[in-house]
Amino acid sequence: MDIKQKLLAVAIAIVLVAFIAVGIETFYKAPENLCNRAYESPPKMFISNCELLQEPNRTTCILQQQEFYDNQSRMNQKCYDDFQPIDNLYKRNVFIILTIIGVLTIILGLFLKEVSAVYLGLMIGGLINIIEGIIRYWANMNEYLRFIILGVLLVILIWISYKKLR
């Protein structure tokens, strides 16, 4: 395989991965994380520097600020707790989509061995999609699922190597 074919294979892999990523973003949008919105502005009477006030207004100001920030913290934690299951489900689904597309792309590449640039590009692109799916969902997987997925991928890659690349 000459340098032109290798470069074409890399280009095919890069465009394939980008195509799949844009397709997922277009047709299966990530849930909107409203927790990342800017903090609500403090009340109009809110004084940012309580130290400038005289007692007892200074103590009252400090207590009001603390109550405001405590409420913000509770609201943000609740928002985060409500959003996590939705985000985890999305990440799991994207993992499944990328893994299926990656495996199908690798299989398609095996059938197109006549043109080595296309074959190699599809194989590399499929592998990158699988890796991307694993990386996106890795933190949410339990250790048994990680072990099983990596074991299955290893068996598939070894099988492909023996059956198709000899």
Labels describing this entry:
single chain; 166 residues; mainly alpha; 0% strand; 4 helices
Characterise this structure.
This protein is mostly helical. It is elongated, with a radius of gyration of 26 Å. The mean pLDDT is 87. Helix 1 crosses helix 3. It has helices at residues 3-27, 57-111, 116-137, 143-164. The chain has four helices and no strands.
Quick overview of this protein structure:
With 166 residues, the protein is mostly helical. It is built from 4 helices and no strands.
Task: Sketch the major β-sheet.
Answer: none
Cα-based radius of gyration, to the nearest Å: 26 Å
The helix/strand class is mainly alpha
Assembly context of the chains: single chain
* Morphology: elongated
Low-pLDDT segments, ≥5 res: none
Per DSSP E runs of 2 or more residues, the count of β-strands stands at 0
Helix proportion: over 70%
